[in-house]
Amino acid sequence: MAKTPQESGAQHAPQRKNDNKNAKKDAFAINEQIHAREVRLVGDNVETGVYTIQEALRMAEEQEMDLIEISPNAVPPVCKILDYQKFLYQQKKRLKEQKAKSTKVVVKEIRFGPQTDDHDYNFKLKHAMGFLKEGAKVKAYVFFRGRSILFKEQGEVLLLRFANDLEEFGKVEQMPVLEGKRMIIMLTPKKTK
Fold first, then answer.
1. 77, 98, 119: which is the final residue of a domain?
2. Is residue 3 part of a domain?
């Protein structure tokens, strides 16, 4: 007489299937969801090699763990014997670490008028220096309101002076460009060694 999954100690396998309904479509196939005839088993708790799916499932059941397909496109597919929840936790943790290591580009905006006076200019220059020191990009622009578009040369001169004053902190990524009513210049921080 064959044992039911509850009697054989694999009582958690059917529950896992229900947990997966809420999981993403690209979630890993586990246990009976794996359709290959043979699988390559890898991991710490098993001898690496190619096994039939029945053998691999039996080995997972003996260890009261799940058979997880980690590389479905390989021939034969690569599987590990692990607790599925623990495996998902490790995957999330790894993704979180990768996210933390990737650099996030922050862009700070500084707005000028075409006839910005020296005090305002110096105040904004000081802020831009701080942003560049922190590693953020600076997007400076002159906003032309109404007829002030007649002073676009003044705006360009102002932005070039701004870039020149920030030369030791950042380099110009994009020269002044007129986009609608705004003339924009982009500065990126210089790499510090």
1. 98
2. no
